[in-house]
Amino acid sequence: MMIGGSDAATELSSLGLWSNKAAAINRSEREDRIRRAQGSLDALGVDALLVNAGPSLRYFSGVTWEPSERMVSLVIQKDGRSHMICPRFELESLDAELDVSVDVLAYEEDEDPITLLADFLPPETRFALDPLLPFTLALRLAARWNVVDGARVIDGLRACKSPAELALIRQAMAMTLEVQRRAALILKPGIRASEVERFIDEAHRAVGSSGSTFCSVQFGHATAVPHGLPYDQELSENELVLIDTGCTVDGYHSDLTRCYAFGNIGDDIRAMWALNKEAQAAAFAAVQPGVPCAAIDDAARSVLVSAGLGPDYRLPGLPHRTGHGIGLCLHEPPYLVRGDMTPLAPGMCFSNEPMIVVPNRFGISLEDHFMVTETGAEWFTTPQLSIDQPFA
Residue span of the signal peptide, if any (predicted)? Predict the structure, then answer.
């Protein structure tokens, strides 16, 4: 039994905390990341890198704070110690999370953190800025110093995952795959999408995450809309089901889509499902170190174009890129899309999710993730076997 036949209470009662836990990122790895960032600054011709609150600050320091109107930033200097800029009243909270050895510069609510920064960084300092830095803060920094885009350093380091990062992603993917499997078991005629979404969130919590980071449950014609429709559907017999969801483990994301038949599905849908599976396999087979990201999108899209779909983003066909990077962000660079010529490198991680949309009728989306290896690619999760057998 893979689809239907159970209920939410039964499935939740049999779930427990994940036993095979990956180790959290440790202080030594974070400090090595800072050293590697320092070693990359010469190539940009800069003296320092400013990393703002958000996923990159977590990457370098362990601090999990999100951006706000108050400046919380890490300044990594090419020569010398790094500095954390933080509101003074937040120092105790900062100390509880900060996982690297840095000097802390604290400011009061009525003080300007940019002025504080200027007290120890001369005006000739050349800055590389976090690409996710708020525009207004970037403008203020640019008014005092010569600034450039720091994406080459930050995204370059974050793109290739360490063994510890890969283990965390692997655990998150395995947890979500198990939640997806349990969600398929609770399906029945009349169940609402919101009921399935609530179960998926509770199941993610039951296995040890903080819940679903996102969840999209679509039935029938709604599967033709890549990110769903804004109303609560009821499942009917003989409909296509599409569920896309994920969670995080120590900040690292999972993201899996399963698309399968609830009852009898027409031969035209089955044929499109098989074609989508072929496109996903073609993308995976094209992965090799040194190959540009764009070539993976080309590989998937060419399968669909050869079958008469598209071309390009025309429908029926594939309306979006083949994949995105994943890690501390659900979507992060580089991307498997036309024009992204970033060479694939071992440790990079991507979604593989070509989608076929037949407007106003149905959509097929199969999504698993892979890591680039020295010889090709390796799946984090086993792709779906068939439209009737969503799990291995």
Answer: none
